[in-house]
Amino acid sequence: MPRLRRKVTISLRFLTATLGFFLSMGAFAASTASEGEIRLAIVDQFVVATHIQQESLRGLQMEVSIDAQLPKLEKRGRLRALRKISRLGQITYKALGFSGDNTVKQEVITRYLAAESSARENGAIAITPENYKFRYAGRIIQRGVTMQVLEVTPKKKAVGLFKGELWIDADTGMPIRESGQFVKTPSIFLKKIAFVRDYELRDGVAFPTHIQSTVDTRIVGKAQLDINFSNFSKQEGDDGDTPVVTSNSDSPTAPSPHEPSAEENGASPTISPVGTTSAPEL
After folding, report:
1. CA 5, CA 9: separation in Å to the nearest integer?
2. Rounded Cα–Cα distance for residues 279 and 50 (Å)
3. CA separation (Å) from 41 to 37, 70, 136, 175, 218?
């Protein structure tokens, strides 16, 4: 009898352990499926929202202030420009003025803008399931706003794609923050570009407000850029052919004390095109 009881006890323990294992596996599978469904729902909402965002930003113009510095060289510079998004989605920049060190303008700001334009011209870089893998990382609540967080990893190493995080407004699906590092730089002069892009919701649409970027250059070392957007307005008579900032020596620079600026002479600053882009991002 004691031996029989021992066998029964062992059998019951084995049965309990087996049942517990399968129950835990079932719970794990359900949890995984639930997380996968949440991720897919967020991604679908985001893709639809960004399409609405792009359409809403067409025909807009805004002022852009780009503050850049080379910490090791102790050099700084600031570019003011008018950024326009045509009704066809092309982005162009018109310089309004520059102050600071010319090296910062030529080696940092101009190369950064050219690299951004090049990145968007060299293929599809939209944050979509075709280009990225997504992993749900939870949610964040700030100032009463709930944001879903996704980790994004590009499916290929291509110019313009990045590895990092995406914060999405839970109500609208609009982007609130994009952050990470480009997996491939569009210029041999730039080794690495890390960034944080912030957006602000206005009538349910995400407008760019701020970009903070750190760029490792091959010539002048590490550079830091702080970009702010303001004064959004609709364009009149938009034809999408506005010229943009270049690295030419004719680009507007800070006037010397004995030389009036182009604006003071009533003339427009001299600028030449470096390219356009079809995505409403800087």
Report:
1. 6
2. 10
3. 6, 43, 11, 15, 42
Q: What is the pTM of this model?
A: 0.71
* Residue 59 near residue 233, CB atoms below 8 Å: no
Burial of residue 231 (CB within 10 Å: 0-12, 13-18, 19+) is exposed
The stretch 212-216 carries a mean pLDDT of 93
Q: Give the contacts of 138 (CB within 8 A, at least 6 positions apart).
A: 149
For residue 236, what are the contacts with CB-CB under 8 A and spacing of at least 6?
A: none
Residue 173 neighbours by CB under 8 Å, 6+ apart: 42, 45, 46, 48, 49
Residue 237 binned pLDDT confidence (cut-offs 50, 70, 90): low
- CA angle, 247 then 253 then 257, to 5°: 155
Single out the residue of 233, 225, 221, 220 nearest to residue 197, CA to CA: 225
Strand-pairing partners, residue 69, are 76, 224
Q: How far is CA 231 from CA 56, 64, 82, 88, 176, in A?
A: 16, 9, 10, 21, 19
What are the Cα distances from residue 25, in Å, to 13, 33, 45, 66, 88? 18, 12, 30, 53, 52
Q: Which two tokens stand for residue 113?
A: 């803008």
